[in-house]
Design a protein that fits this description.
The structure holds two protein chains of two kinds.
Chain A: H1 2-24, E1 35-39, H2 42-52, E2 56-60, H3 75-81, E3 86-89, H4 99-105, E4 118-120, E5 131-132, H5 154-171, H6 176-201, E6 208-211, H7 217-222, E7 226-230, H8 241-254, E8 258-261, H9 268-277, E9 280-283, H10 297-314
Parallel strand pairs in A: 1-2, 1-3, 3-4, 6-7, 6-8, 8-9
Helix pairs in contact in A: 2-5, 5-6, 6-10, 8-9
Chain B: H1 2-22, H2 24-34, H3 39-73, H4 76-81, E1 92-93, E2 116-129, E3 138-152, E4 155-164, E5 168-177, E6 185-192, H5 213-218, E7 226-236, E8 242-251, E9 268-278, E10 283-295, H6 297-306, E11 315-327, E12 337-354, E13 357-375, E14 380-390, E15 398-411, E16 414-426, E17 433-448
Antiparallel strand pairs in B: 2-3, 2-17, 3-4, 4-5, 5-6, 6-7, 7-8, 8-9, 9-10, 10-11, 11-12, 12-13, 13-14, 14-15, 15-16, 16-17
Helix pairs in contact in B: 1-3, 2-3
The chains are: A alpha/beta, B alpha+beta.
Chain lengths: 316, 455
């Protein structure tokens, strides 16, 4: 009986102590006056860096060679998210499996959904494959709001950068001119680079390709490629023998030689398809950082276009 | 009539979608005003762009209206002859705007302010022999409905209602305040307590069909410590690259058969400290210690039979330690992964040597489990678990068990499982041991809103 009372007192003291520790510890201090920006993916990080320059410190949650649908909600990300002033997300439910719990657990009011520090880049980009009519998972892991791989179109990159410029200007009015100048420089460089890319891809206009996942509609539209099939029978559903045979037949009929695969998919089925069709598997990078040399948004297109050119030339 | 309604609905929704598409434009214009250098040209450019976009939309709307008028003018007889319009092609992809690109994704019109709704079905079948803890041959073990939404700029709420074979139960229902000062996170409602790992995991998110023996014997069975209360969480200062989080919870004190409160002041408390570290980009270590304290059913039983109120304090103290090692290579995350987890539980339960009399005693029981799961490829995972646990009310009785599990994932939204379970279980009635050999299978299916992947 006395025993119980001591325990009760102990419990109360323990709880009180825990609360005290929690309330008493100081907030993490700001190391510098840079705006802390977190992005869901490396591409958005690169765009934010282009516009923000040295007035921002940018870091991405996902790595460039990682499937952005299946990032793990590791607590180590919380250490960065709790300090973020701005969180830039891809949106369109790309990060639905991992970002919402991270946002909630960050305890950071600035980046909660729809707070001023929450920025959904998809609102400013041209979105393809927006489903109309009935949407069911009979079609696989569909994105009911449209295809979220929209950053693979330089025009969308420019639109997002413009929106980021506006956002940063709103958050740091003192640096408005700086961000405007950074954006103007980015716009000029990107437009020049895009001219070069379009010229490089011109000889291959209208060429048919097959991709593993539906990651490339924006890229294909901008560079005038024709994606005629997918290694996945449905988004998010692994390849089946039946579908693979169909795909091989289709590729043979239509003379398709290129199979573009994202770095996070197994190459077994694509290689088998390539063997059967005399085609070529090309590992294209959907994101900045997919390979060490892809250090920014420009190098991403440089890399993919070089790979595609090489493959087109080798198969014709 | 139906067409008229459709037309009216279309007219109502047009301005809404138009507004959404124009949204980015004003932002651009406003930044042009704040910007001192070269504002005129930017603004004119922005306005031109906006005008072009609007012209495109007007043209499209005009076409749509024309088409709709024609459809309406079509003979009514046709509508009668074919009252059921053919279902729209599944997932037809919208034609792209020809004049100006439309920015932004689809609008979640059907959703509006409704919460995200999901339902998870959990069907379990059991074969074989188990005389100590028999379960049903076939059952729709649980149908869990999840409702999740943002409440206001300061809070979100999550409610999980579980329809089982024996009735309906609010498994969890809480509001989380996300915008508190000092990075505090407050949760109020009914929730699974942060006592170790397995206690906080919902049935469908477990790597096995059943819960470990230690959960059943020491931590309240399938529902575990799941009670109405309040929870405060905060990330704590830690050495570099370590993540440290503390949670303090206060509950009413009623959790299955582990805690039972007979008076208002008999609240239970739970404390949890979590430490996490990335050992590399693919590997991480997750450690935790937990403490829980509450009044147990001995007090209620005594109160009922003898009417003694007040100074009798029969308390259960629970201590827990957990360790998890995860490996998942980022480039092959959907194909390969490994998880090892061990949890230890110590229970100190005050009770009388006989249910309604005898001497005061404290039973000290220990329980643990250790499990490993490996993802072989995109569709298959295998795992094994070792179990050992004493009984809370009689630590002399110890159960041992082993399980092997095979899971097949047709997609991210369903799982089919088979589990072999061996148990050498202590029988409280005869105080002897009896062997249980069982084969369990389970079908899990998810519908509705896409939930978060468990971590």
């Amino acid at each position: 009986m006395r025993h119980g009372k001591t325990h009760m007192r102990f419990g109360a003291v323990a709880v009180a102590f825990a609360l005290l520790v929690m309330l008493g510890t100081p907030l993490p201090g700001r190391a510098d006056s840079k705006l802390q920006v977190m992005t869901a993916t490396t591409d958005l990080a690169s765009l934010a860096e282009e516009v923000g320059g040295d007035k921002v410190s940018v870091e991405s949650v996902a790595r460039g060679y990682q499937d952005p649908h299946f990032v793990e909600a590791k607590p180590s990300f919380l250490l960065k998210l709790r300090k973020a002033d701005l969180l830039i997300v891809v949106g369109l439910q790309l990060e639905i499996g991992w970002l919402p719990p991270l946002i909630t657990q960050s305890g950071n009011p600035r980046i909660q959904i729809a707070a001023p520090g929450y920025f959904d880049a998809s609102q400013y980009a041209q979105i393809l494959e927006i489903p109309t009519g009935q949407v069911t998972r009979a079609e696989g892991d569909v994105h009911p709001l449209g295809n979220p791989h929209y950053w693979l179109d330089p025009e969308n990159g420019l639109r997002i950068a413009k929106a980021i410029q506006n956002k940063l200007s709103e958050m740091r009015p003192a640096d408005v001119a700086y961000f405007a100048q950074r954006y103007a420089s980015f716009e000029q460089r990107l437009k020049e680079a895009d001219q070069k890319w379009l010229a490089e891809m011109k000889p291959y206009a209208g060429r048919k390709i097959v991709t593993y996942h539906r990651s490339w509609p924006n890229f294909a539209k901008h560079f005038n490629l024709d994606v005629v099939g997918y290694v996945e029978p449905r988004p998010g559903i692994p390849p089946s023998p039946q579908h693979t045979l169909q795909l091989i037949g289709q590729m043979k009929r239509e003379g398709v030689k290129i199979i573009a695969v994202e770095p996070y998919f197994d190459l077994k089925t694509p290689n088998a398809v390539a063997r059967e069709t005399g085609g070529l598997v090309v590992v294209l990078m959907p994101s900045v950082g997919g390979e060490k040399e892809i250090t920014d948004y420009f190098k991403l297109f440089d890399y993919d276009i070089a790979k595609l050119k090489q493959a087109f030339d080798a198969t014709r | 009539m139906r067409k008229k309604i459709a037309l009216a609905a279309a007219l109502v929704t047009w301005p809404v979608s138009g507004f959404a598409q124009e949204k980015p434009a004003p932002a651009q214009a406003s930044s042009g005003q704040t910007q001192a250098a070269a504002p005129q040209e930017d603004r004119v450019k922005a306005l031109e762009e906006q005008l072009r976009a609007l012209a495109g939309q007007v043209a499209q709307l005009r076409n749509d209206l024309k088409a709709m008028r024609e459809a309406q003018a079509a003979p009514a007889a046709e509508a009668v002859a074919a009252p059921a319009a053919p279902a729209p092609a599944v997932m037809a992809v919208a034609p792209q705007a020809t004049v100006a690109p439309q920015l932004g994704g689809a609008q979640q019109n059907a959703k509006l302010l409704n919460p995200d709704i999901s339902m998870i079905g959990d069907f379990i079948g059991t074969m074989g022999r188990n005389t100590v803890q028999p379960s049903r041959a076939l059952e729709l073990h649980e149908s869990e409905v999840g409702l999740q939404a943002i409440i206001d700029p300061y809070a979100r709420a999550d409610v999980f209602i579980s329809f089982g074979e024996e009735g309906v139960n609010v498994e969890e229902g809480y509001v989380t305040f996300t915008s508190l000062p000092a990075e505090l996170r407050l949760r109020v409602g009914k929730m699974r307590a942060e006592f170790g790992k397995v206690n906080a995991i919902h049935n469908h998110a477990m790597a096995y069909i059943d819960r470990p023996l230690a959960t059943n014997n020491l931590v309240g069975g399938e529902d575990g410590i799941d009670d109405a209360g309040m929870s405060l969480t905060r990330i704590l200062p830690a050495p570099k690259n370590w993540f440290l989080e503390g949670t303090a919870q206060v509950f009413r004190g009623d959790s299955s058969d582990v805690f039972q409160s007979s008076r208002r002041q008999d609240v239970s408390v739970v404390g949890h400290l979590r430490a996490y570290k990335d050992l590399g980009e693919s590997t991480n270590l997750d450690l935790g210690i937990s403490y829980a304290r509450g009044h147990n059913d001995q007090e209620a039983a005594l109160l009922k039979t003898s009417g003694i109120v007040g100074h009798n304090q029969f308390v259960t103290n629970l201590y827990g330690a957990d360790a998890t090692l995860r490996w998942k290579p980022l480039r092959r995350a959907i194909y390969k992964s490994f998880l090892w987890r061990t949890e230890l539980f110590w229970s100190a339960r005050d009770q009388l040597t006989a249910p309604t009399g005898g001497f005061f005693e404290t039973q000290h029981a220990f329980g643990m489990y250790s499990s490993a799961e490996y993802r072989v490829n995109r569709r298959w995972t295998v795992g094994g678990r070792f179990d050992r646990s004493g009984h809370a009310a009689n630590a002399a009785l110890t159960d041992n068990g082993f399980s092997a599990i095979l899971t097949y994932w047709p997609s991210e939204f369903s799982q089919i499982r088979g589990q072999y379970r061996f148990g050498r279980l202590a029988n409280p009635a005869s105080a002897g041991l009896s062997d249980a050999n069982e084969l369990l299978f389970q079908f899990l299916f998810v519908m509705g809103a896409h939930g978060a992947h468990p971590f």
